[in-house]
Every structure is written in C-alpha cells, then in structure tokens.
Specification:
Blueprint (H helix, E strand, L loop, with lengths): L3 E3 L6 H8 L2 H7 L6 H16 L4 E6 L5 E11 L4 E8 L8 H16 L4 E7 L3 H8 L13 H11 L3 E7 H8 E6 L7 H4 L6 H7 L4 E7 L2 E10 L4 E9 L8 H15 L4 E7 L3 H9 L3 E6 L11 E2 L2 E2 L3 E7 L1
Parallel strand pairs: 4-5, 10-11
Antiparallel strand pairs: 1-2, 2-3, 3-4, 5-6, 7-8, 8-9, 9-10, 11-15, 12-15, 13-14
C-alpha cells in the first residue's frame, strides 16, 4: 500500500498547517485562514477525542514518509456499529491514487479493529471535488439518503447546508478487498493455519500436500487458507478452510467461499463438497447460509483421531458432508 496511517503528533503540525492552508483545500473544507497554533490545538483535540473513544484520527503519510493529508473515523457508535469518515489530502497529492489507499487503510481499522458494519461518508452539495472523489471509489454505495434518513438529517444539521450521503458497507469492502492466491511452493509454513480448522496434525499432514492450496488475503493481510482436492472431473472437495482469529466474524469466510465457487465453476466443475463435524454448530449454519445442503453423514469419521475433539460441549464423532451445485 502506498500510504501509512499514523497517530497525530505535534511534530506534524507545520506540515498539516501548510497543506490545509492551500486555497484549494481550505476552500473545499470551508476553513478560515489560520495559524500553526490553530493546527496544534486541532491535533490536541483529536488526541483527546481518540482517548475518549469518540474517534480514530490519523495522519496520512506517503511512501516517502511525507505528510499528505489526514483521515478520521468520527462519531463512532458501537451500538449501531457505525461511524462517519472525514478526510482530505493536500492539493499537490490530488489525482495520484492516494485517496483510494487512504480510504482502504482507515476502513481496515473500522471493519477489522473496531468491528463496525458501516461507515458513512458525507459531502456538501457544493463540494464538487469531494463528491467526485467519493464517486470514484469502487466499494462505496452512493446516495443513500433515503436508506438512512436520520443520518442524512443529522449531517445536514451539522454542516448547516444541503449534503449528499454515501456509505461504505463492510460486506462490500470485504468483497472488493479479498483475494485468493495459489501457493505453488512449500506448504509446511501454512500448517499452523490448516490446524485452525483441523486439530489433528497427523491427519492434516496426510493431505496437506494434495490438491491446490490457497492463501486468503484481505488486502495485504493473510487472513486464512483453503485447500481443495479434486474428487472427480466434476466435483471438487473443500478439504480445509480456516480464517485466522482476528479476521473471524467479519464475513471473509463467506466471500472466500464465493471466490472458490466462482473459480472452480470457471474450471468446469459442477459441484463442491465440504465436510464438518457434528459438533461444529457454527460451521453447520455457515455452510447452509452459503448455499450448501446436507448430503450425507460419515459415521465415526472422527473416532480415530488421536485426541477426542469437543465443541459446544459435544464430541466430534460423525462428519456431515455438504454439497453445493455450481
């Protein structure tokens, strides 16, 4: 990623002041002429708000460590799992792709660290530049005023003028941000990830070098793995799929399943199958929500594991096999 986000610090005051004083930026933000002391006070307020849990303000640095703008998650509401975003870049950095990179970086904080579901992005009707910048983002939903009337009203009261309201939804962001990367080299280093889904190392080692192994990436982050083994010319088995703990519950597994289905449908397969333990209540629900149907039960499949596995107070004994038509 071309940008890095860092916490506010007084050492950035002069650079932020210089960038925000440019007429193109100052006019777009509706800022009065100010002094460096005003920027210092701004940084202090941002730091206080972050300590209070009201916001997550960040300074945007480019690949050379140069200050190019600021971005912030504001008015964080953990009950609604939402917040608003505010950001600007220095005029000399417009049109260079930094806006997309900065949005991705701050949205990773919103969706992965804070666990929010949506981030609202507003713009004044008269701020054509801001509206155009938002419209270029591939994972934004535009003009959601009718869907979120209270948020829109609040925004216009805050800005004291007509505004448009857009939103970043976590599911849209993850769908855009998640990719599958096939591993063609050694697989030993991926064993710890495979063991997240199948605890018996001896069993995992018996199949880990078969089929195709994929890394699930969310942006630059390794968020999981998936191992697929061909069962016939038309059927592929999802032998192992695991999402690392910090990315669980964020919808990445659902998106990864869809990417797998799309990839193997394009290869000519007509069915994908997957097995899970009778004790894996969450997995049983997960696969059915993803369009899989129960196909058969392999009784006593887990009985020969070296150590008994318990989930939800239930011992894993039988394997439930699910299938999905591609």
């Amino acid at each position: 990623m071309a940008v890095t986000l860092v916490k506010h610090n007084l050492k950035y005051a002069e650079a932020i002041h210089a960038l925000s004083s440019m007429p193109q930026v100052r006019d777009a933000l509706g800022l009065p002429m100010g002094k460096v002391e005003d920027t210092i006070n701004f940084i202090k307020r941002e730091s206080v708000d972050e300590e209070a849990g009201k916001s997550v303000p960040r300074v945007v640095l480019n690949e050379e460590g140069q200050v190019i703008g600021v971005t912030s998650l504001m008015f964080i509401d953990h009950e609604k799992k939402s917040c608003h975003i505010g950001s600007w870049l220095g005029y000399e950095f417009w049109g260079k792709g930094y806006n997309l990179d900065a949005k991705i970086a701050i949205l990773e904080i919103a969706f992965f660290e804070l666990g929010l579901d949506r981030v609202f992005a507003g713009a004044r009707e008269v701020n054509i530049r801001s509206k155009m910048a938002q419209e270029k983002l591939p994972f934004i939903r535009l003009n959601v005023e009718q869907d979120y009337p209270q948020e829109h009203t609040w925004l216009e009261v805050k800005e004291k003028q007509p505004c448009v309201l857009n939103v970043f939804e976590r599911e849209d962001f993850i769908r855009y941000h998640t990719t599958l990367e096939e591993i063609t080299g050694e697989r030993e280093s991926y064993l710890p990830y495979l063991l997240l889904a199948d605890e018996d190392e001896e069993v995992v080692r018996s199949y880990m070098n078969d089929g195709k192994l994929y890394v699930i990436r969310c942006g630059e982050h390794l968020s999981g793995v998936a191992l697929l083994i061909e069962q016939s010319e038309t059927t592929i088995e999802l032998k192992n799929i695991a999402v690392v703990s910090e990315f669980q519950g964020r919808g990445i597994g659902k998106v990864a399943l869809q990417l797998i289905s799309d990839r193997y449908q394009a290869k000519g397969y007509t069915q994908v199958i997957v097995g899970t333990a009778n004790s894996s209540i969450d997995n049983i629900a997960f696969y059915q929500k993803a369009g899989f149907r129960m196909d058969k039960i392999k009784k006593d499949f887990f009985s020969n594991y070296s150590e008994p596995i318990y989930e939800n107070g239930i011992r894993a004994i039988d394997m439930i096999v699910f299938s999905k038509t591609l």
